[in-house]
Amino acid sequence: FLILGGAPSSLWYLCMQYMVQSHAPAAEPPRASSDLDMYSEPPVQRRPVPAVASVPPAAQPSPKVAGSQPTPAVAAQPPSARPQAVQAGQAQAKQDDEAPRCKSDDQFTDCAADLVKACGRWRNLCQSTCTPGCDPAADNDNAAVVLESPHVERVEAARAPEAEPQTCLPFSRQLCPPLNLSLLDNKEQKAVHDSCGKYVKQERNLPSPPRFCGAREGRLNPCWSETAGNGSALSYCLPHFFILGEMKCGTTTVYELLLKHPRIVAPRTKEPRYLQQGRFAQTTLSRYAVNFRRAVETAAADTVTFDASPVYLRSKIARFWLARWLPEAKLIVLVRNPVQRSYSHWKMGYEWAHGKCSDGDMAQRLKEVAELLTFSSIIQRSLVVTYWDRCRQLTGGESAPSGFSLMALNDKRLPPAEQRHLHSPAATLNYSAFGRCLLTQDHDLILEYADELRGAWPVEPLKGAMSRAKHAVGSCSEMMMLPPAALQKSGSYAVELERWARIFPRSQIKVIVTDELTRGSQRIMNETFDFLQLPRMPIGNQSRFCVRGKAGVMDVLHASELNITIGHDTSEHAHLLAPQLKVGDCEPDSGHAHDEATGSDLHRIEPRVQERLRRFFEPHNRRLYRFLGRDLGW
């Protein structure tokens, strides 16, 4: 047909889009994204996007007026005049997708990962959780997701009785788990977790729309006034901003520098980790809010508090809980040269392992495999495991062995047993498509591990020692030394940032580069204070801080976390004491070298291993540079 004119071309375009989509065959549902997608080279974006958009002027908290209620800021809305095709797609999706899984906080669908592919056809996405802001006529690579924000009560709302189904999210419920959990024995702790389960379950399955039980107060920091069971009104606060991670990128340094500002109040513990998968299933909002009582006690309208849990960056629970309940939250992300971060990750795990398991049976198990626990050994095993999973995606077969395990291939991927002695290591691996794929990833590295892959290594007694040490390595290092954790967390900055940026506006995300913080701490912190809508403040000359031990880092949920203590006060108020975070100078070990260009102390890494890591991280770094709109020179 011909367009003869008489109407704006954009209108004709939208009509054509509607006709095409209306008559197109049913599309395949969007593929579920996995963390291994980060190993694929991403498509080139049409234009570079800066890390953080311009920050609006500092917001002045509104005075609290009786009978009125300030409304929190929400994510930027998409254009109101949406194409008819998009509206039709949303209506159909909402009709098709009204399923129970879309109603609760603990069953989020990862809209962020699937958004671009699902644009215009949102089957399999939870409409009660998010509404994609897709526009077929726009650049969808940078499309945002607009989420349904919590309803804010305009009057004081009494909490729902505990015996009845919850209709709102309460602050005044009993603390689950209690603050004195670490003082209980194993049996008592189990009883506590069992009894808390029903309260947590009620909070995770609230009816839509989501809402808090209290009334929002007129403060810059999100705080609510809620009527308790005795009729008195109490205040409760949640964080104004979050340090999402990544761990080992300087989160402790930023934490300490932020606290130099008189209007920033420290949380009870540095890392509450409420939105971490295991803790989220066992912790009520009332228990989480205890971490921010100091913000309530200040009673100043211009003070703010925060959560510095560096595990949130990779947490799907954190992304969608914050977007649903605190859509105005400010988010800080730190990124560091991935090779250096990987070493720091291993080093922390190594120190924890030998500190936590310094004697006894576990210490002996670690000693038997000491040669396999060096950085070079752990990180190269991580590379092999990662390449294994990449090739599994391409050729099929079983997943890579988990943790500190032997990496022997299945017999189907090797020549017949009676013929293997006739083949060289390379020929043995070339027998299958999977083996050939491995060799293309890093030929020299794979050949170094060929004997293990084909089952010829290790021999006794080392083989038995590895089997015995498998649990000890994970438990003593608190999972830090298990392959391929150090590698994955260092290579996923861009993937995770993209997921957060598809839910939160870029203006709410601040990316800090660790090296830039080290050599220009005042400048970076000035930018950060601007981002947080706070006046600038001098922060002193020290630009690096490190935690001493684990006390005060996070709360105890299980008896097995005995290396984290609340304190030694045995008085009746002992369970109310906050653990004291011990922070001091970062003492470089003998394996450091000072880099004049970055102003940082760099870990000395074997050149051959460093080059292998550099090649591995190269595509992930390019993806991060595209997100930031600049090259960091890694």
Please describe the topology of this protein.
Blueprint: H1 9-23, H2 84-96, H3 111-118, E1 130-132, E2 145-147, E3 151-153, H4 186-204, E4 211-216, E5 223-227, E6 233-237, E7 241-245, H5 251-258, E8 264-265, H6 277-280, H7 285-289, H8 293-298, E9 304-307, H9 316-325, E10 330-335, H10 338-356, H11 360-368, H12 375-395, H13 425-429, H14 433-441, H15 443-448, H16 450-453, H17 462-476, H18 485-490, H19 493-501, E11 509-513, H20 514-519, H21 521-531, E12 546-547, E13 583-584, E14 592-595, E15 600-603, H22 607-628
Parallel strand pairs: 3-4, 7-9, 7-10, 8-9, 10-11
Antiparallel strand pairs: 1-2, 4-5, 5-6, 12-13, 14-15
What is the strand tally?
15
* Helical coverage, percent range: 25-40%
Distance between termini? 54 Å
Question: Main sheet: which strands, in order across?
Answer: 8-9-7-10-11
Helix/strand-derived class? alpha/beta
Q: How would a textbook summarize the main sheet? A: 5 strands, parallel
Strand portion: 5-15%
Parts with pLDDT < 50 across at least 5 consecutive residues: 1-103, 106-149, 151-161, 557-579
Oligomeric status of the shown chains? single chain
Structural Rg: 27 Å
- Please tally the helical runs, counting DSSP H or I stretches of 4 or more residues: 22
Q: Categorize the overall geometry.
A: globular
Average pLDDT reading: 74
